[in-house]
Each structure stands twice: as structure tokens, then as C-alpha cells.
């Protein structure tokens, strides 16, 4: 297909790279390389996961590199393949690509726009192929929510591992959670407001929450100065503060720095108080 640099520039700044690439039979990385070769500025990776108000402004398109035309052919090159060569995505790659497409569509147009038909269209495949990966819309949304939760938890554990004591680990965990909520939270908040997703994830989220609190409870009651009921109540209260702050930054209802400072002050004050009670100092 014949395109101009201006046309491609307009398209990659109007919808996710993956969707544009699929339309021309390319991968997202392949299209990115073409853009770089033609010196076409492209959106950063986080562009479509952020709200419209916080996205980077679109730059100006510079002139074509010397020796290159403004018009070029775009499409998948047909190559001779040996028998048995795989040219399609693996099942897992396809699942990830479909979740990426669904997430970008939800952030751009709202969760109601995420249908199997629309995801298939944007991914450049048939609805049947989508159903081969996900039984239906709810299964797709659940998989997307689980991936977002797993990513946040992985980041939380990585940050906690850098802490040398309990207070430092709590501080790193809180800061990390708020940053993840600001970056990835809008999509997860949207998913968790969907009744079928929220209800299906309740048992899993409860188990994950219990597992995350277990080391804290063990430390608080380990010295025998705080009973388990008090430790659970205090930990639940401080967790609620963090979750509320995460919801605020995810929805952009207040400046991030202000929410982070207030949340961190409350959580750290509560943590220090709990440690004092557990040690019999108060």
C-alpha cells in the first residue's frame, strides 16, 4: 500500500501502533523500525495507557531524511518459506496481543467499547481466532485484570526486596503502589468496577491480600505485646488508606505529589505506632 510519511504519522498518533501495524500485516516492532528509519516520531510506550490529559503532546513531523521520498510502500513482504515454518503468533503471543489491544481500546473509548468483534477488527484477525484464545468478552477482561494485578504485585515485591527493615519496606511498598496506581491504575480501576470481573476476582484478591499481610501480622504479634485482632485491625486500616489514595491518583482527582505525601505520612505514622505497641512502648 502506498502511503505518505504524513499519513503514517497521523495514523500512529490516532490509535495504538499495534492496531496500525496489524492493518498492514506487520508487527508493532516492525512498524516501529519503519517509523524510525523514516524519521517519523512515534508515541512512547506508555502513551495509550495514560489518560488523554496526561499524554505527551504530539510533535511536529520533520522533513524526510535526505535521499528518501515522502511516499513509500507499506505492507508485509512476501517471502518464500520452507515447509513447516511458523509465520503466525504463538497462542501465548496472540493472547498477550489481544489483551494489549483490549486494554488500549478501553482506555481510549471506555470499557463498553471492548467487544470481541472490535478487538478482532483492531487486531486484524477474525472473531473466531479471538474465541480460540478467550471464551468470550468476560474471559478476556478477566485475563486482562489478572495481568494488571500480577504486574502490580510483581513491582511491589521487587521494591520491598530492597528494604533493609520493616519501616523501609512499608515505605517502598506504599510509594511503589501509588506510582503503579497512577501509571496502570486507570485500566485496573475500570476493570474492577465491572461486576462480573469484580465478583470473579474476589476470592483471588482476598487470598493475595492475606498473603501480603501475613508477614506484617507475624512481626507485630511476634513479640507477644500485640494481639492478633489488634494487629489485623490496624493493618486493615492502613491498607484501606493506601487503597483509597491509589484510587484517587488513578482517577486523577488530586495532584499525585499531594496524595503521595499525605498517604505516606499516615501509613508511616501508623507503622511506627504499631511497632511501638508491639514492643510494649506505648
Structural class: mainly alpha
Strand content: under 5%
Q: Tally the helices.
A: 11
Strand arrangement within the widest β-sheet reads 1-2
H-E order:
EHHHEHHHHHHHH
Number of domains: 3
Largest sheet, if any? 2 strands, antiparallel
Please count the beta strands (DSSP E, at least 2 residues each). 2
* Rg over CA atoms: 24 Å
Q: What shape does the CA trace take?
A: elongated
Distance between the termini: 75 Å
Helical fraction equals 55-70%
Regions with pLDDT < 50 over 5+ consecutive residues? 76-87
List strands and helices in order, with pairings:
Blueprint: E1 2-4, H1 5-12, H2 17-23, H3 28-37, E2 71-73, H4 91-109, H5 116-123, H6 127-133, H7 137-160, H8 166-192, H9 195-222, H10 228-250, H11 256-278
Antiparallel strand pairs: 1-2
Helix pairs in contact: 2-3, 4-5, 4-7, 5-6, 7-8, 7-9, 8-10, 8-11, 9-10, 9-11, 10-11
What does this structure look like?
It is a single chain. The chain has 3 domains: 77 residues, no CATH class; 46 residues, Arc Repressor Mutant, subunit A (Orthogonal Bundle), CATH 1.10.10; 131 residues. 65% of the residues lie in helices and 2% in strands. The chain is mainly α and 282 residues long. The termini are far apart. The protein is built from 11 helices and 2 strands, in the order βαααβαααααααα.
Which key features would you list for this structure?
282 residues, 2 strands, elongated, Arc Repressor Mutant, subunit A, mainly alpha, 65% helix, two-stranded antiparallel sheet
Amino acid at each position: 500500500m502506498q502511503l505518505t510519511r504524513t499519513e503514517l504519522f497521523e495514523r500512529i498518533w490516532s490509535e495504538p501502533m499495534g492496531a496500525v501495524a496489524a492493518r498492514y500485516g506487520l508487527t508493532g516492532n516492525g512498524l516501529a523500525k519503519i517509523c524510525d528509519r523514516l524519521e517519523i516520531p512515534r508515541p512512547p510506550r506508555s502513551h495509550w495507557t495514560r489518560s488523554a490529559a496526561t499524554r505527551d503532546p504530539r510533535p511536529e513531523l520533520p522533513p524526510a531524511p535526505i535521499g528518501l521520498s515522502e511516499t513509500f510502500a507499506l505492507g508485509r513482504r512476501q517471502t518464500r518459506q520452507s515447509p513447516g515454518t511458523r509465520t503466525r503468533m504463538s497462542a501465548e503471543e496472540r493472547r498477550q496481543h489481544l489483551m494489549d489491544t483490549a486494554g488500549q481500546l478501553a482506555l481510549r473509548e471506555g470499557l463498553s467499547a471492548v467487544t470481541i468483534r472490535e478487538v478482532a477488527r483492531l487486531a486484524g484477525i477474525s472473531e473466531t481466532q479471538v474465541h480460540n484464545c478467550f471464551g468470550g468478552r468476560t474471559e478476556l477482561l478477566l485475563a486482562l485484570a489478572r495481568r494488571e494485578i500480577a504486574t502490580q504485585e510483581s513491582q511491589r515485591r521487587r521494591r520491598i526486596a530492597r528494604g533493609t527493615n520493616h519501616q523501609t519496606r512499608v515505605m517502598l511498598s506504599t510509594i511503589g503502589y501509588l506510582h503503579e496506581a497512577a501509571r496502570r491504575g486507570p485500566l485496573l480501576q475500570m476493570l474492577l468496577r465491572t461486576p462480573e470481573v469484580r465478583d470473579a476476582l474476589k476470592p483471588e484478591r482476598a487470598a493475595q491480600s492475606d498473603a501480603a499481610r501475613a508477614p506484617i501480622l507475624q512481626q507485630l504479634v511476634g513479640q507477644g505485646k500485640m494481639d492478633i485482632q489488634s494487629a489485623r485491625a490496624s493493618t486493615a486500616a492502613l491498607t484501606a488508606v493506601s487503597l483509597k489514595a491509589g484510587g484517587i491518583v488513578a482517577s486523577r482527582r488530586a495532584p499525585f505529589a499531594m496524595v503521595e505525601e499525605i498517604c505516606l505520612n499516615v501509613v508511616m505514622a501508623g507503622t511506627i505506632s504499631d511497632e511501638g505497641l508491639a514492643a510494649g512502648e506505648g
